[in-house]
């Protein structure tokens, strides 16, 4: 039996804690024995978790007996973590204990230095900020979870369940993990590399010098745009435009245009019954096949599959 310690951090997201507690706590082996022993530990006897106040029975030294430590997100992930928690996590990592973060719990791992030089993810809304604060982290905002062996991270909300089921499968195999997935009424196989359902290419703190160009693209993405069109609208040379896009967004101008078109297509798939052909034309893609290819490449699902998730009542008529 593995011992899982779920950290009770100040201002913890209760959903993140419950995801780990419920998933691991309900795992049963073929002979009926529990697969995990669950412990909730913290540096204080009680913590506020949103509207809840949670009593904490175990202190941080419980981490010394853990096979896995789960670090939930905090409602304000930018607040410094308690030094005692960071020290305990560093010590656990040095002893080879597995440590997994859920959602913005990755900020705590990054603050402890455990993500330096490693692949990591977090909720897509916070990914840019984590990358800015911790440039040594190899941030990948497009995936559901990452597994570096002893250090694991998940994206937001339901992705924490995917990561927990992935860990169960690693520990006990597919059959036990499938049973845990059925108890959670969740699919077993959503691989870590599947894309998060991200809202693509909105301006961030890093795009202030491109604001004019981004606003113009937002309004004109449906057109058959060229680099020269965008440069003229931004009052820049093509060379300057390309350099600034690379510096400030990490993308080329045309990659940014594709992302905006995908976001506009997501909106239409979620809110209208329009066919995929019509949406491709409305959002600026030259052909439906090009739209399907780019959509699937960026989001990891087809437009039809995306619609089934976010607008199931239209999935038959809109496909």
TrEMBL record:
Q: Where is the HTH araC/xylS-type domain?
A: 211-309
Key words of the record? DNA-binding, Transcription, Transcription regulation
Superkingdom in the source lineage = Bacteria
Q: Name one GO molecular function term.
A: sequence-specific DNA binding
Q: What is this protein called?
A: AraC family transcriptional regulator
Q: What organism does the UniProt record list as the source?
A: Micromonospora arida
Give the organism's phylogenetic lineage: Bacteria, Bacillati, Actinomycetota, Actinomycetes, Micromonosporales
């Amino acid at each position: 039996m593995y011992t899982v310690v779920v950290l009770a951090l100040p201002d913890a997201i209760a959903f993140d804690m419950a995801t780990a507690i419920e998933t691991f706590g309900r795992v049963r082996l073929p002979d009926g024995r529990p697969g995990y022993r669950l412990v909730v530990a913290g540096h204080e006897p009680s913590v506020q978790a949103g509207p809840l106040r949670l009593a904490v029975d175990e202190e941080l030294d419980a981490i010394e007996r853990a096979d896995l430590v789960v670090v939930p997100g905090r409602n304000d992930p930018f607040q410094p973590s308690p030094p005692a928690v960071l020290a305990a996590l560093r010590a656990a990592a040095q002893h080879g204990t597995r440590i997994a973060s859920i959602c913005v719990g990755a900020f705590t791992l990054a603050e402890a230095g455990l993500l330096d030089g490693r692949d990591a993810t977090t909720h897509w809304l916070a990914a840019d900020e984590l990358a800015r604060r911790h440039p040594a982290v190899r941030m990948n905002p497009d995936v559901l979870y990452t597994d570096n062996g002893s250090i694991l991270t998940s994206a937001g909300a339901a992705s924490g369940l995917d990561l927990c089921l992935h860990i169960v499968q690693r520990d006990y195999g597919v059959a036990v993990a499938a049973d845990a997935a059925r108890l959670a009424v969740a699919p077993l196989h959503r691989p870590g590399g599947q894309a998060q359902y991200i809202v693509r290419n909105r301006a961030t703190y890093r795009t202030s010098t491109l604001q004019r160009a981004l606003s113009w693209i937002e309004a004109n993405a449906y057109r058959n745009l060229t680099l020269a069109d965008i440069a003229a609208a931004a009052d820049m040379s093509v060379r300057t435009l390309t350099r600034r896009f690379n510096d400030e967004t990490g993308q080329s101008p045309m990659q940014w245009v594709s992302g905006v078109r995908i976001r506009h297509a997501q909106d239409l798939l979620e809110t209208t019954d329009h066919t995929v052909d019509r949406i491709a034309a409305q959002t600026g893609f030259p052909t439906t096949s090009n739209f399907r290819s780019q959509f699937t490449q960026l989001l990891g699902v087809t437009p039809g599959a995306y619609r089934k998730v976010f607008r199931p009542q239209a999935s038959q008529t809109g496909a």
